[in-house]
Amino acid sequence: MTSTTTNTRMQANSYTSGRLPRWFAPTLFGASLAAGISIIALLAAAGVLPEFPIVLAVLVGVVLYDVLITVISSAAEGRRAATDRLVTSLVITAFVIALLPLISLLYTVVVNGAARFDLTFFTHSMRSVIGEGGGALHAIVGTLQITALATIISVPVGLFAAIYLVEYGRGPLKRAITFFVDVMTGIPSIVAGLFAYALFALIFGEGVRMGFAGSVALAVLMIPVVVRSSEEMLKLVPDELREASYALGVPKWRTVAKVVLPTAGAGIVTGITLAIARVIGETAPLLIVAGFTSSMNYNPFSERMQSLPVFVYTQYANPGSQVEFYLERAWTGALTLILIVMALNLIARLITRYFTPRTRR
User: Fold this and answer.
1) Higher local confidence (pLDDT), 51 or 257
2) DSSP string, 129-194
3) Confidence check: pLDDT of 56 > 80
4) What is d(CA 261, CA 107) in angstroms, rounded to the nearest whole number?
5) What's the CA angle centered on 89, arms 15 and 48, to 5 degrees?
6) Could you give the CA distance from residue 241 to residue 225 in angstroms, rounded to a whole number?
7) Max Cα separation, the chain?
């Protein structure tokens, strides 16, 4: 009985002791968003705005919330509490502003890409298709093959480089490798494409185009990401585990293989998955070295090979007489690529959650 009376008094005092109730800020935020959407909707209906921009409506609502919460808090709680609420609302505003482009992008791609998100798109290529119809099967297969080969090339190189930097590297050589990895992290993707083209042109001659060359270009972009992520995961392995293994007489190479790598395995796989997601959408290097085609090509070591990013680019940049069909395929290709990247990120999250070793108490 005493506890109930105390809680009732505290709730009643929240109105009179200079503190707004907890539900007030969320309620005001929702009301502000509704007011912002209503204002922009009225302007669009009156013809002041050509259409209803949802991004502008949300932004107006958030700014309205910043003003209202500061004014109301200043009157009810005082200057200090009002300053605290103002800073909190500005943080929320910054978060919403950062999120708006992503929401707008996803909304636009889903709305425009849903028109051709059908079975035909995933089971047919563009061979002999001029207007309506066709699909991106050849591009999806090409993307998966090129990315898989790039992963096969880059993962061993990046992982062994990370092991050397953490477990064996000392002196100038370690500093040199670290420096060049940092440099490679920032190189433009077009440079990787030109490097792969120059390399294969020396072997096969001018004008060479093949999927494997695209894999080499993507591997150049993947290696520094794999090195950095794997290096950080290996550094997180406690030195006590290494020392315990050494105390049992286990050689260093076996300690790395049986103790260090399994402990950091989940983080390393997560980093590799994110590296794949980072390069799977690259267009410039593949446009240079892998080329584009409208037919199926299952052999990455011969002839041109299409990929999803290049498919989207060619459908948009080179439409035929019936432009709407090309744009529909381009949007659907972009939606497919986003779904693949989202799936890779989800897999990385699941690996981190379920396979990371946990300390038992």
Assistant:
1) 257
2) --SS----HHHHHHHHHHHHHHHHHHHHHHHHHHHIIIII--HHHHHHHHHHHHHHHTS-HHHHHH
3) yes
4) 41
5) 110
6) 26
7) 90
Buried b (16+ CB within 10 A) or exposed e, 183-195: ebeeeebeebbbb
Contacts of 317-323 spanning 24+ positions with Cβ under 8 A: 320/130, 320/131, 321/131, 322/130, 322/131, 322/132
| For residues 219-243, average pLDDT | 92
Rounded Cα–Cα distance for residues 295 and 127 (Å): 5
Note whether 335 and 136 are within 8 A (CB): no
Report the predicted TM-score, pTM, of the whole model to 2 decimal places: 0.79
Cα-based distances in Å from 46 to 61, 109, 198, 249: 19, 28, 59, 81
Q: How far apart are CA 129 and CA 356, in angstroms?
A: 48
Using CA atoms of 71, 74, 77, 83 in order, give the dihedral in degrees to the nearest 10. 100
Give residue 296's identity as a one-letter amino acid code. M
As a whole number of angstroms, the distance between CA 350 and CA 339 comes to 16
Q: Return the half-sphere exposure (C-beta side, CA atoms, 13 A cut-off) of residue 308.
A: 25
What's the length of the chain?
361
